[in-house]
Amino acid sequence: MEIGNFNIGSRAFIIAELSANHGHDKSIAIETVRAAKKAGADAIKLQTYRPDTITIDCDNEYFQINDGTQWDGRTLYDLYEEAHLPWEWHAELFEVAKNEGLVCFSSPFDKTAVDFLEELNTPAYKIASFEIQDIPLIEYAASKGKPIIMSTGIATEEDIQLAVDTCRNAGNEEIILLKCTSSYPAPIDLANLRTMVDMKERFGVEVGLSDHTLGNTVPIVATSLGARVIEKHFILNKSIGGPDADFSLDLEEFSSMVKAVREAEKALGEVTYELSEKVQKNKKFARSLFAVKDIKKGERFSEDNVRSIRPGYGLHPVNFNKIIGKIALKNIEKGSPLHEQEIKDFEI
């Protein structure tokens, strides 16, 4: 599967989520894209909606936020009015990303957003956690034949299966599911990354992580468990403020996370029993059979005059029992490695 010029599976696809971290200032949004490249991201992801494409302007009890979040006391419309990325900025941000060598794509929140993003030749679609139940939206996005990345932050197993089936029924098999904890910020003990591994097997798709925890631990563990995508909120500077600033990583933090993920990938390496040149050189410090006392020609080898010790210049220790009782063919000084030609009737 490819997203833009990135081959999913070659290494983790690291996405910097712009989200609301633009302060309604286009120059900040542009600089954030450039900073994402500097931080080591492979992609920048936008969110494409207007307040009235995601909710309605209503302040009754259903549209008030009062659930113990950082956004309590606001209406949904008010929050999304502050957070949304103006659509007229999208084309320029796509172009800036292209010039920086970044993949740029977005999360649509209704069909008009999908149509708009098609005009911009988006290489993929991201379905946000709270839209995973919007089956008509998923069906429409999937019908465009581009990779579909879906966060599962509020999804049950049945929700995920329905969303995956919807993509497949639309003729789209290019599906990536992201393990996500829809809490802002999210506590580490709710990451439950083993679920990510299970999702890959259960639903037969690629998997990754959309992370709202603070720090690098969860992305590192996810990488070690096979995450093909790592998504984190990215902010140019936390002084910008905004709804997502508290759980977003700045340039230094995001760079640290990228470095940690790439080091984790190096540590995973590949299945091999070949010894590197450096390790081969160090193998001389392994154990081997040595004379630990002077041994005269004709004397028998015994547990008293032969031992398995470091370094590794003598016979392999597996030969110890074969040597015991056999006769030395020459004088052997204490501290000398033993070799087969020094031992009568010895065969490896």
Biggest sheet: strand arrangement: 5-4-3-10-9-8-7-6
Give the N-to-C terminal Cα separation: 52 Å
Highest-level CATH class of the largest domain: Alpha Beta
Q: Unreliable segments (pLDDT under 50, ≥5 consecutive)?
A: none
CATH architecture of the largest domain, please?
Alpha-Beta Barrel
Give the CA-based shape. Answer: elongated
Oligomer: single chain
Measured by DSSP, the beta-strand proportion falls in 15-25%
Mean pLDDT over the full residue set: 95
Helix % is: 25-40%
Per the CATH scheme, the topology name of the largest domain is TIM Barrel
- Biggest β-sheet, characterized? 8 strands, parallel
Overall SS class: alpha/beta
CATH homologous superfamily title of the largest domain: Aldolase class I
**H-E string:** EEEHEHHHEHEHEHEHEHEHHEEH
